[in-house]
Amino acid sequence: MHSHKLYKLIAVLLLSGLLLAACGGAGTPAPAGSNLLGKTWLWQKTEFNSGKDIPVLQPAAYTLQFLADGKVNITADCNNGGGSYAVTNNVDLTIRIETLTRAMCPPESLSEEYVKELNDTGSYTIEPSGELVLALKSGAGMRFKAQ
User: Fold this and answer.
1) Is residue 46 assigned to a domain?
2) Mind listing the pLDDT tens digit for each residue in 94-108?
3) CA pair distance 100, 80, nearest whole angstrom
4) What range does the domain containing 57 cover?
5) What is the spatial distance between Cα 80 and Cα 95, in angstroms, rounded to a whole number?
6) In this structure, which of 43, 65, 103, 144 has its CB flanked by the most CB atoms within 10 Å?
7) Of 7-11, 117-121, 122-126, which gets the smallest average pLDDT?
8) 18 found inside a domain
9) How far is CA 123 from CA 35, 75, 112, 128, in A?
C-alpha cells in the first residue's frame, strides 16, 4: 500500500517538473531586444566618424521607448511619433518612424535630424555604463541614457 502512494507521489512530482519546464524555467533565454524594453531612453548626442558631434542640450525633449509588441514611441522636441522596430541576431536593429506630428519647432530644434538618424539605425549595443548606442548605417553612433 505504501509503495502505491510512493509511485503516485513520484508521478505527481515528475509531472510538476515537466509542466514547470514547459512554461519556461530559469534557463529560458530572454527575447531578442528585451534589454531595450521598460525604459525611456534620452538622446545625449550623436558621434560622427569625422570627429563632429551633435550634442543634445535638452535630452528629455528627445525620447525613445521600445514596446514589447514591436512598436516604438518617440518624442522629437515639440513633435511626437511612433513606428516599429525589429531586432535580429540580438544586435541588428531597424527602426522605422512611421507617424510624426508636424508642429513647428524652434529653429534650433534637432527634431528632423533625430528622426532621420533613428531611421538609419543598423544595430545597437548597451555599454557597461548602461548607455544605449545605436550604430547608424552611415557610421555614426547615437548615444542614449535611460531615464
Assistant:
1) yes
2) 999 999 999 999 999
3) 6
4) 34-146
5) 15
6) 43
7) 7-11
8) no
9) 14, 21, 21, 17
Question: Is residue 74 a contact partner of residue 61, using CB atoms and an 8 Å limit?
Answer: no
Q: What is the distance between the alpha carbons of residues 42 and 44, in angstroms, rounded to a whole number?
A: 6
Q: Decide if 11 is inside a domain.
A: no
For the chain, give percent helix, strand, coil, nearest 5.
Answer: 25, 40, 35
Number of structural domains, the chain? 1
User: Please, which residues bridge with residue 124 across strands?
Assistant: 134
Residues 6+ apart with CB under 8 A from 114: 43, 62, 74, 76, 77
Answer whether residue 103 is part of any domain.
yes
Please, how many CA atoms are within 13 Å of residue 22, restricted to the half-sphere of its CB? 6
Write the CATH number for 69. 2.40.128.270
